[in-house]
């Protein structure tokens, strides 16, 4: 069972929900719905992973991740410019007497070396980031971290997702937005929980995320975080679109305080564990 | 010598496009024949690396000088690498930009005038 936690807008509480849900499920081994081989949490927000702040894992493994990028053999290159034409990401510039490469823009498609008429392009590993894995609170936890200056996140997310253990309840903390890294993180999930906030910004970006999930054909529902009983436009939208709103986390000072201290509110306020387990039950029900 | 000017239109009275990588068109002006040709910028909607692709277009069209409003680091670096001189700060129309260039009124830049553009 793979559940991804996503949102159109950033800062709505994806990590808060993902970490607290993982924690709550991991504590309730007597719960019939959670009779699985445990809980795995993957922080796929590789540009800014912060799940580890709350989970505090003992890191047992670190793995450097490389991406194959082109390397030009200047002896063979005739500066014909074919590679620059082929490159969909504009990672290659060819002048009369030189080739300038931008490995940070490369998506490692291999097109340049395939189409080079001189066979002058080989591929070389370029470090883009690392994966760290460990455990805490009975949760198997791993995260990816993109190096500073690197902008191509999907290959690192893909590599991180190779660690998925489908026997467990797998919770994926996705990056914000609806662009390539989000799609890489969410695709293949059995269910996606969309976290939003009761503001016009939350609603606008929720709509974008809903459109994305329809294309990906991943079933989904909504969670409203920081619920203030004031802004009902999200309710109207979800009613109209027939999207279930599974739970609402209230705008409460205590929850914010626990968060600001880098702790899990379901740990400090254990009554929430039951709520997260029920949330999981509803997700299982909806993904059938 | 050929000069590539980032342009919003097809003739000498068109406004200079202040952006380099995502300009609408390049006006390729030949300073010897005084002829010109408008080339659509294929990079205008690129997800990323627009500056690099636009620079490639300018170089492929034989430009030795680029005139624009502002230019980012990737585009500036590849143009310098290809031996192309970059003049920034052009406003108004293409004809006045060329006149200003000839009169030495445009500033030749030795580094990017702004940060890299938005990524895809």
Number of domains of chain B: 1
Summarize the amount of helix of chain B as a percent range.
10-25%
The number of distinct β-strands of chain B equals 6
Radius of gyration of chain A (Å): 22 Å
Number of beta-strand segments of chain A: 11
Strand content of chain B: 15-25%
The low-confidence parts of chain B are none
Task: Give the N-terminus to C-terminus distance of chain B in angstroms.
Answer: 35 Å
Helix and strand pattern of chain B: EEEHEHEHE
As residue ranges, the low-confidence spans of chain A are none
- In one word, what is the shape of chain A? elongated
List the helices and strands and how they pair.
The complex is a heterodimer of chains A (288) and B (120).
Chain A: E1 2-6, H1 14-27, E2 39-43, H2 51-55, E3 58-72, H3 82-86, E4 92-94, E5 99-101, H4 111-115, E6 121-136, E7 139-146, H5 154-161, E8 169-173, H6 180-186, E9 191-196, H7 200-216, E10 220-227, H8 233-241, E11 245-250, H9 253-260, H10 265-268, H11 271-286
Parallel strand pairs in A: 1-8, 1-9, 2-7, 2-8, 9-10, 10-11
Antiparallel strand pairs in A: 3-6, 4-5, 6-7
Chain B: E1 2-7, E2 25-30, E3 36-40, H1 50-60, E4 63-67, H2 73-81, E5 85-88, H3 94-102, E6 107-108
Parallel strand pairs in B: 1-4, 4-5
Antiparallel strand pairs in B: 1-2, 2-3, 5-6
Helix pairs in contact in B: 1-2
Provide an overview of this structure.
The complex is a heterodimer of chains A (about 290) and B (about 120). With about 290 residues, chain A is α/β, with parallel strands linked by helices. Chain A folds into 2 domains: about 1-40 and about 170-285, 3-Layer(aba) Sandwich (Rossmann fold), CATH 3.40.50; about 65-125, 2-Layer Sandwich (Alpha-Beta Plaits). Chain A is about 35% helix and about 30% strand. Chain A has 11 helices and 11 strands. A 9-stranded mixed sheet of chain A has the order 3-6-7-2-8-1-9-10-11, sandwiched between helices. In chain A, strands 4-5 form a two-stranded antiparallel ribbon. In chain A, α5 packs parallel to α6. The longest helix of chain A is centred in the last third of the chain and has 17 residues, at about 200-215. The termini of chain A are close together. The model of chain A has no long low-confidence stretch (mean pLDDT about 95). With about 120 residues, chain B is α/β, with parallel strands linked by helices. Chain B has one domain (about 1-110): Nucleotidyltransferase, domain 5, CATH 3.30.420. Chain B contains 3 helices and 6 strands; from the N terminus they run βββαβαβαβ. In chain B, strands 3-2-1-4-5-6 form a 6-stranded mixed sheet, with helices on both faces. In chain B, α1 (about 50-60) packs parallel to α2. Chain B is globular. The termini of chain B are far apart. The model of chain B has no long low-confidence stretch (mean pLDDT about 90).
């Amino acid at each position: 069972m793979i559940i991804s936690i996503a949102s159109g807008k950033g800062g709505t509480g994806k990590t808060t929900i993902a970490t607290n849900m993982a924690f709550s499920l991991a504590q309730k081994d007597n719960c019939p719905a959670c009779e699985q081989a445990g809980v795995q949490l993957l922080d796929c927000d590789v540009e800014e992973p912060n799940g580890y702040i709350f989970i505090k894992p003992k890191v047992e493994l670190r793995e450097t991740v490389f991406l194959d990028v082109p390397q030009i053999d200047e002896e063979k290159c005739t500066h014909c410019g074919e590679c620059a034409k082929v490159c969909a990401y504009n990672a290659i510039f060819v002048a009369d007497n030189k080739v300038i490469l931008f490995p940070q823009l490369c998506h490692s498609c291999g097109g340049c070396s395939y189409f080079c008429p001189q066979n002058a392009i080989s591929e070389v590993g370029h470090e883009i980031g690392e994966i760290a894995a460990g455990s805490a609170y009975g949760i198997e936890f791993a995260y990816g971290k993109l190096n500073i200056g690197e902008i191509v996140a999907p290959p690192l997310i893909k590599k991180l997702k190779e660690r998925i253990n489908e026997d467990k309840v797998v919770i994926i903390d996705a990056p914000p937005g609806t662009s390539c890294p989000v799609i890489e993180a969410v695709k293949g999930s059995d269910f996606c929980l969309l976290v939003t906030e009761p503001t016009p910004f939350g609603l606008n970006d929720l709509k974008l995320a809903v459109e994305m999930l329809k294309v990906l054909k991943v079933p989904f529902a909504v969670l409203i975080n920081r619920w203030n009983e004031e802004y009902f436009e999200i309710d109207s939208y979800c009613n109209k679109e027939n999207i279930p709103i599974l739970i609402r986390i209230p705008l409460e000072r205590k929850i914010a305080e626990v968060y600001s201290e880098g702790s899990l509110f379901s740990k400090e306020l254990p009554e929430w564990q039951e709520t997260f387990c029920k949330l999981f039950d509803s997700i299982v029900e909806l993904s059938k | 010598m050929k000069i590539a000017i980032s342009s919003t239109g097809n003739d000498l009275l068109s406004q200079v496009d202040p952006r380099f990588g995502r300009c609408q068109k390049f006006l390729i002006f030949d300073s010897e024949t005084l002829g010109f040709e408008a080339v659509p910028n294929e990079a205008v909607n690129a997800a990323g690396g627009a500056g690099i692709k636009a620079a490639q277009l300018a170089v492929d069209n034989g430009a030795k000088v680029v005139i624009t409003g502002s230019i980012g680091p990737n585009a500036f670096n590849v143009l310098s690498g290809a031996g192309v001189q970059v003049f920034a700060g052009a406003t108004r129309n293409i004809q006045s930009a060329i006149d200003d260039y000839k009169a030495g009124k445009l500033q030749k830049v030795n580094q990017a005038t702004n940060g890299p553009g938005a990524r895809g």
